[in-house]
Amino acid sequence: MASKASQASRSFIWIILILVMFGLGGYGARNFGRGRAVIGTVGDTEIDAGQYARAITASLRAFQSQTGQSLPIAQAQALGLTQQALAQTIAAAALDNEAARIGLSVGDARLRDEILSIPAFRDPVTGAFSRDLYENTLRNAGMSVKEFESSLRADLTRALFGQAVTGGIGAPEAFTAAIYGYVREKRDFTWAKLDLTALENPPEAPDEAALQAWYEAHQQTYMLPEIKHITYAWLSPEAMAARIEPDEAELRALYESRPERYNRPERRLVERLSFASEQEAQAAMEAIEAGETSFDDLVAERGLSLDDVDMGDVTESALGPAGPEIFAMEAPGVVGPVQSSLGPAIFRMNAILSAQNTPFDAVKDELRAELAAERARDAIAELIPELDDQLAGGVTLEELADSVEGMVLATHDWDPSAAEGIAAYEKFQEVAGQMGEGDFPEINALADGGIFAMRVDAIDPPRLQSLDEVREEVAAAVAHDQQLKALEEQARALLPRLEDGSESLSTLGLAEVLEEGRSRSDAIEGTPPDMLERVFAMAPDAWAIVPDRDGVILVHLTAITPPDQQSAEAQAIKAAIAGQVAAEIGADLQDAFAAALQEQAGITLDQAVINAVHSQFP
Q1: Does domain 227-246+362-461 have CATH number 3.10.50?
Q2: Is the pTM of this model over 0.70?
Q3: Coil, helix or strand for 473?
Q4: CB-based contacts of 505: which residues, under 8 Å, 6+ apart?
Q5: CATH class of 2-168+584-615
Q6: Distance between CA atoms of residues 82 and 414, nearest Å
Q7: Alpha carbon of residue 377 to chain centroid
Q8: Virtual CA dihedral for 505, 510, 511, 512, nearest 10 degrees?
Q9: How far apart are CA 409 and CA 403, in angstroms?
């Protein structure tokens, strides 16, 4: 139990220290530190506003680490992050209130041991606890020693409740064995596909009643989406670039600014393994030359991977003193020992990369297109304010397209599934989805530097196509469905002969496929997605018919192989399952316990102070 408490308290400490390192004050939490503002009470215990601010900060940091995006407080509220932080803070206060009520607390010795165990408070040279470092770290976090120790004592005390509530929780062996058995069971079976070409008695063409019944049962299939009839004006970078002709001097200047792209010196693909002394390096080289070991073996013996010793493609000058010897090699091999920036080393040269000299004339057209495209994007960006002003002044899209050389005027019947031409641009899709009939056209920028403006001329609402409009499609669907049903009946008539052994898949002229050791998560090419789900529901030696889109599959289950419940792998996985289940149950119990304490003690909240905490965040 003590170890669990220690882990919980260390997690709390590291959260605080991480917040310190990233600058908790930047989120305004410092404003609620020493003033002892409170956002409410649980029983007789005040809920510290600073603690609530730190909980919000931790949530924002966690979101940023997961997504790479910072989150404004308004969005955090919309996503429920502030509510979660508030619930956590209230739950902690409820435990503190109950601890005070029953007189529960950890002693000074336990608190001292916990503080001394925190690496961030140890001198980096001696490794001993540093009182100065301890106080300075807390001061930088906007906390006094007294505040920190009170907070830590409260956290350790709350951990005692956690031990009491969740102690002894575990998953029964029968439960973990059942879960493991379900996941790791295997099946052996044979199967064969019976497609529509094998249908002996095809059904007659469907009558009108069958068409009508199918149509009414599948109306969603024959719905047309909302269609927006759009007129748009589009100026692409390619159209603008056709009007731009960079001069020779500009092209040559761009060419000369890229020597690494067009004129690369000779290089070598090199790996380097360094040693502590010249003697060790020499001994390693002699062992390689004698065939007693290899470069790869030496790397592995050092606990390294080839990525650790890879220098990539390097020039002679980049290799320093080793450059001349390595570049004198005419074929891949190992040389050394040679002095390097990391000391004595042996080098393996894996490939010779010849110098690349691309003349200006060979890339002139490429440079012209690149420079023209860049100029075109800049020119289009400069046009945006002017074109927006023209639209605001009442200029139509037709007039706008006439006034700008290269701008295309066109129409598009748009629905959300459209993905061709200009509709392939995400921005066009976004604007088309939001714009309504009569909305004012505006200039919008595309990801490639182009611009467009659109007008919705008319909107056709979603509608169900009539049966006459989709008659051929419905007739084909009904005929296919009837054929599949007839084929399934034909396959079902074969089952008695297959079950009594008088026939087999091969004697029926079918291509029999043998599957061995298949698990639930496997995928079998040429079978429907639910194939294995159906197989795992079968009894041993049973036959089944599995419908497919263009036929049916006959399946024979030949063996069920349960997993070895006593193997080392099984024991490890079942232990992990038990741990996860225990953790989930424990978390639920702790939540229920905290909720009961809150209901028993009563909660009051000051929304004005809560809003003030929120206002400190950007």
Answers
A1: yes
A2: no
A3: helix
A4: 190, 191, 192, 498, 512, 554, 556
A5: mainly alpha
A6: 40
A7: 32
A8: -10
A9: 11
Nearest Cα neighbor of 183 from 592, 524, 570 is 570
CA angle 60, 61, 65 (to 5 degrees): 120
**What would the CATH number be for the domain defined by 266-354?**
3.10.50.40
Instruction: Provide the percentage of residues in the chain whose pLDDT is more than 90.
Output: 43
Omega prior to 337 cis, within 30 of 0: yes
DSSP class of residue 203?
P
Domain spanning 186-217+472-561: CATH 3.10.50? yes
**Residue 34 and residue 3: Cα distance in Å, rounded?**
32
Question: What letter represents residue 213's amino acid?
Answer: A
In 3D space, the residue among 400, 405, 381, 396 whose CA is nearest the CA of residue 455 turns out to be: 396
CA distances from 610 to 86, 89, 90, 598, 618 (A): 9, 12, 12, 18, 15
Q: In terms of DSSP bridges, do strands 333-340 and 343-353 run parallel, antiparallel, or are they unpaired?
A: antiparallel
Nearest to 522 by CA among 512, 535, 510: 535
DSSP 414: E
Question: Using one digit for the tens of pLDDT, what is the confidence trace for 149-204?
Answer: 888 888 888 888 777 777 777 788 899 999 999 999 999 999 999 999 999 999 99
Q: What is the pLDDT of residues 322-354, one digit of tens each?
A: 888 889 888 899 998 988 877 889 999 999 888
3-state SS, residue 413:
strand
Please say if the pLDDT value at position 259 is more than 90: no
Phi, psi for 608 (deg, rounded to 5): -65, -40
Instruction: Decide: 262 and 363 in contact? Cβ < 8 Å.
Output: yes
Q: Return left, alpha or beta for 605; rule: phi > 0 is left, psi -120 to 50 is alpha, else beta.
A: beta
Tokens describing residue 206: 């469907």
Q: Which residues pair with 556 in a beta bridge?
A: 190, 543
Give me the helices (H) in 23-130, please. Answer: 49-67, 73-78, 81-102, 108-116
